[in-house]
Amino acid sequence: MSLRPTLETRLAQPTMEGAGVKLHRAFGFQDPSELDPFLMFDDFRNERPEDFQRGFPWHPHRGIETITYVLSGTVEHGDSLGNHGVLGAGDVQWMTAGSGILHQEMPQGNTAGQMHGFQLWGNLPSSLKMTAPRYQDVKGTEIPVIQDDDGTVVRIIVGSFWGKTGPVDGIAADPQYLDISIPAGVKKTFKIDTYRRAFAYVFEGAGAFADASKPSGVLLEKEVAGEEVNIRDLSGNRTLIRFGTGDEVTVQAGPEGMRFLLISGAPINEPVAWHGPIVMNTQEELMQAMRELRNGTFIKPAH
What we know:
CATH superfamily: Jelly Rolls
Mean pLDDT: 88
Distance between the termini: 47 Å
Order of helices and strands: EEEEEEEEEEEEEEEEEEEEEEEEEH
């Protein structure tokens, strides 16, 4: 077994999207190979309705999949194919845009006017860029929840973990998407297949991730993989941790415990031509998508 080194730790940056939604972006619109097959990750958490209710009006998507996970409040969505629904607290939507749709998402707060959720963009390989669009809407009650003896709780959004499998399937990136809560002071190791790219996103409390490649920090209680492995400074609210190659991630929760997402997927390793919500492999394909948007042929007829 080998511990994954911590390549980078950085705070999500405030930005604005849609018609004026304030959010924090952990990564996106930078180097698409950095976390291939994932392109972008946003944390839309707000305490004031005026910061999110203008929402994300009609916009196109092609060549990607979007994964929306709601923790509080609701998100009403609709598209040009006639699909419509509402995501509530704990719900997940995995949308395969494929050949193209026009889509809108309108968040609404809970009774206290608060909204919190995440959206992750996953790339599609060239063979699936023009596949038929589809949705997988999953209620929170359908998501497996496992509690370990030490109080650790894992919600399995996608993929298999500890003998349970999440309800979303057939995803190109073969992802694993876990929502993990660890009690104060508990140290935990999670296994990730070596071939996957992986990152963590801490959004409650704080914790320290072990780092096999950097000797600075507080020594873990025991050796990992026969070597002295040190733990980095505490990573807290809205922190992205990007990992290198290996098959284990070890973390120790801080004095208030911690909650984080642990996400991994198989890299696609293809060229990326990217403009806003449209991601293709070549500039020619990207320009073709723009022409179709202008002339009204962007949405492909169902076969």
